[in-house]
Amino acid sequence: MHQPETSSDWKWQIANQISTRGQLEKFIVLTNAERAAFEADIPLSFAITPHYAALLEHPALRRTIIPTIHENCVGTGELADPLGEEDHRATPHLIHTYPDKVLFLATSFCSTYCRYCTRSRMVGKPTGTASAFEESFRYIEEHTEIRDVLFSGGDPLTMTDAVLDELLARIRSIPHIRMVRIGSKVPAVLPMRITDELCTILRQHRVWLSLHFIHAAELSFETQAACRKLSDHGIGMVSQTVLLKGINDDTQTLVDLFYGLLEINVKPYYLLQCDPVRGSAHFRTSVGKGVELIRSLHGNISGLAVPQYVIDAPGGGGKVPILGSEQLRWEGDEVIFINYEGKEYRYPDPEEGRHSRRADCAIKNPIQLIKKD
Ligand code: SF4
């Protein structure tokens, strides 16, 4: 692998996103499965910042970013919208699932696209502009039970300072809003975006960050500096880690990540069972494996380093913390559990050998390295 050209200017990183097979092959040798994906009709966009591309020597990170033909294999129970968000869409930019919380979809753009993204149905596709948000602000004003607004997307921290400042000022002008969060992977994939100016805006509007990390290999020098800068500005940070098969589904990998996050003042918050989004079977572990992993952490490492293991209940039942298998019941291919309202939900458990409905999912050519010219 050659190292791609990079820069400490975040706008340069976005302007120089790697988004085609040709650009990627200038510094990385693709496998047959990866090459085939670029020729197939894969639903999720491909793009990566040069900063993150330089980390792809690590096989775990490579698997989460470079598409493979497996994404066209739709497993049992997998859906384009696994959390039923569209059924809870209150306005074009708002999802209202929990009584006191809304998800505000501020942008569909990400600087880097994760292959297991729950919102692969919408990220990387055109969306409305910030001027179209007023209907959503009015909805929040009218629903005084809403206290907590989570800006997500896409990645809101890819928006400019001026747009973010206006968005956050508008939401903070609503008296019943007590909590404002932004969900972002920017400190991992575009750490140079964390400027003093951005930190000042986030501090001024009392924003918490919910950051997405999946592996300690993401904690580059630049990422550590970005998180320390956010911490020095008084920004509260928690992390969300998606549990991914063959990428972070072993105790030592999780321990390295969670301690690494604590060292840069990010509290590990959620270890998320991977949502059953279409084409995700090759990323999803069984729920039994998730239970085994979280149990291996409790009591053995600092309690502060242990996140909650949660399943986001398919169909919109919300996040359900799983402490042990006593909470679970298996029926065929499904795991059954109860959410905070006492309602029963089912998660399609990806057991080996019975996850695929399509016979044509197997890659005809074995994965092998192709020599670069
Ligand atoms: S950064 Fe978040 S929204 Fe963007 S592709 Fe990754 S998981 Fe999806």
Compose a concise summary of this entry.
The protein has helices spanning 10-15, 21-24, 32-39, 50-53, 59-65, 134-142, 161-172, 186-189, 196-204, 221-232, 251-262, 287-297, and strands spanning 89-91, 94-95, 101-105, 148-152, 179-184, 207-212, 237-243, 267-273, 308-313, 318-321, 329-331, 334-338, 344-348.
CATH architecture term: Alpha-Beta Barrel
Q: Strands of the biggest beta sheet: in what spatial order?
A: 1-2-3-4-5-6-7-8-9-10
Q: Which bin fits the share of residues in helices?
A: 25-40%
- What top-tier CATH class fits best? Alpha Beta
Hey, roughly how much beta strand do the residues contain? 15-25%
- Summing up helix and strand content along with how strands pair, one would put the structural category as alpha/beta
SSE order, one letter for each helix or strand: HHHHHEEEHEHEHHEHEHEHEEEEE
Form type:
globular
DSSP summary: helix tally? 12
> CATH superfamily, called what?
Aldolase class I
- Main beta sheet strand tally, sense and closure: 10 strands, mixed
Please identify the oligomeric state. Answer: single chain
- Average the pLDDT over all residues and give the rounded result: 91
User: What is the terminal separation in angstroms?
Assistant: 13 Å
> In angstroms, what is the radius of gyration?
20 Å
- Low-confidence residue ranges: 352-373
